[in-house]
Write a structure and sequence with these properties.
mainly alpha, Citrate Synthase, domain 1, Cytochrome p450-Terp, domain 2, 2 domains, three-stranded antiparallel sheet, 3% strand, globular
Amino acid sequence: MTTTAIAKGLEGVLFTETKLTFINGTEGILTHLGIPIQEWAENSTFEELSLALLSGHLPTTAELEAFDAKLKANRAVPQELLESIKSYPRGINPMQALRTAVSHLGLFDQQSEETTAEARMEISVRLIAQMSTLIAAINRAQQGLEPVTPRTDLTHAGNFLYMLKNEEPTPEQSKLFDIALVLHVDHGMNASTFTAIATASTLSDQYSTAVSAIGALKGPLHGGANEAVMDMLDEIGTPDKAADFITAKLDAKEKIMGVGHRVYKYFDPRSRVLRDYAAHVAEKEGKSHYYQILEVIEKTVIDRLASRGIYPNVDFYSGTVYSDLGIAKEYFTPIFALARISGWCASVNEYERDNRLLRPDAVYSGAVDAHYVKIEDRK
């Protein structure tokens, strides 16, 4: 019997260094390039944070303007790909469609097989720009609607909302969605980021790393919690039923969606930012019942679980924000990918500067001294 310690889920295992993102789960701290996430959300934009992570520094005005121009110039995707998206079966999981579309997108990129640092950076820009176009096109195609051509006079967030609804969003809607994207851009060595790096460590191409990451994000233990939160809110129905519903769940030792986090043993700092914006939207819209239910759930959960380091996470409030923007809940996870593509690319590019093929090991616990038995002699 082996006495080797096994880190289940690779918890606590260090495999690389990074200058991009730091997390202190005990104190509820998240920083990018050493800057707190609250400051990014309040002062920055998705475009600026994406460039900062890709470049490793706060960009100058000229650098940011050039990057923004590149994003806008690369928003359109090939018409052949749009036709393919329109042919996808109705009712499929949007993450299935996105995984397929991103893989298909790589076929049109003449640079797709290049893996130099310069090529990865150029492809990263295109992936960031075109991910939103693909997701909006998938959403509309699944409704039997024509894709909306991207505009170059809107922000990344505003353009996505425009392509989704074929209606220009208000500045407030664009800003709210931009903040949501900023909060999801990167979050350390989570499952999808690690998967992207593992693929890249083989010197595979940038599109393959993105497809790998999307596959990991598709799993409900990673990317689908905000959708599950909305399902829970719909099941509860009204604020007056929330406390009893959650209490019964806790008494039965059942998981409360959007509560608890593998890393954080205190409030997820992203959830505090989104809570404030969700409150603002709810007040403006007449205190939506969703927000009222969430308030009751949060109080009930904290009263019962705070002593164990279990608090609401970013998924707890993000679904209500997306819902207030008119986004269907099955597209919450693709929107996660829309934001996280920047973090995936930045992490892959950083790792590739000192690449080493990832090759973990496992403790063997099977039979020993066994011998082959011919099939006719087996019982």
